[in-house]
């Protein structure tokens, strides 16, 4: 083995420092369920100090509505404007 072993959470945080990822990308990259990836993201958002977890908002693929004021990290289930369920997931990134 080379170097030190990182926890899964730290590995996810490092990946988010390199560039934006959505929940599905995180779950596939680290071979965890999306629910587990979401749990890790919630913890990372509280512990990323002095850096911070940013979120590019989810967006309706039909009408383009952006969920800018949404505080939750999960993907919304439907658009409040057109009521469609085709929502592009939010992307997360850690920035300085």
Detailed description of the structure:
- This protein is α+β, with helices and mostly antiparallel strands and 96 residues long.
- The protein has a single domain, classed as Arc Repressor Mutant, subunit A (Orthogonal Bundle).
- Strands 1-4 form a two-stranded antiparallel ribbon. Strands 2-3 form a two-stranded antiparallel ribbon.
- The termini are far apart.
Note the topology.
Blueprint: H1 8-18, H2 23-30, H3 34-47, E1 52-56, E2 59-60, E3 87-88, E4 91-95
Antiparallel strand pairs: 1-4, 2-3
Helix pairs in contact: 1-3, 2-3
Keywords, separated by commas or semicolons:
96 residues, Arc Repressor Mutant, subunit A, alpha+beta, two-stranded antiparallel sheet
Question: What's this model, at a glance?
Answer:
This protein is of the alpha+beta class and 96 residues long. The chain contains three helices and four strands, in the order H-H-H-E-E-E-E.
> What distance lies between the first and last C-alpha atoms, to the nearest angstrom?
30 Å
Please state roughly what percent of the residues sit in beta strands, choosing from under 5%, 5-15%, 15-25%, 25-35%, 35-45% or over 45%: 5-15%
Work out the helicity level. 25-40%
Strand order of the largest sheet: 1-4
| Alpha-beta content class | alpha+beta
- Main sheet characteristics: 2 strands, antiparallel
CATH-scheme architecture: Orthogonal Bundle
Task: Give the rounded overall mean pLDDT.
Answer: 94
Which regions contain 5 or more consecutive residues with pLDDT less than 50? none
Number of domains as seen in the coordinates: 1
Number of helices: 3
Count the beta strands: 4
Radius of gyration: 14 Å
SSE topology string = HHHEEEE
CATH C-level name: Mainly Alpha
- CATH level-3 fold name: Arc Repressor Mutant, subunit A
Shape: elongated
């Amino acid at each position: 083995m080379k170097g030190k072993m990182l926890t899964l959470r730290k590995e996810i945080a490092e990946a988010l420092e390199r560039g934006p990822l959505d929940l599905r990308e995180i779950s596939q990259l680290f071979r965890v369920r999306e629910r587990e990836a979401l749990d890790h993201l919630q913890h990372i958002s509280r512990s990323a100090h002095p850096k911070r977890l940013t979120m590019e908002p989810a967006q309706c693929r039909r009408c383009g509505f952006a969920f800018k004021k949404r505080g939750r990290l999960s993907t919304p289930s439907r658009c409040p404007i057109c009521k469609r369920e085709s929502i592009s997931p939010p992307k997360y990134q850690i920035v300085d």
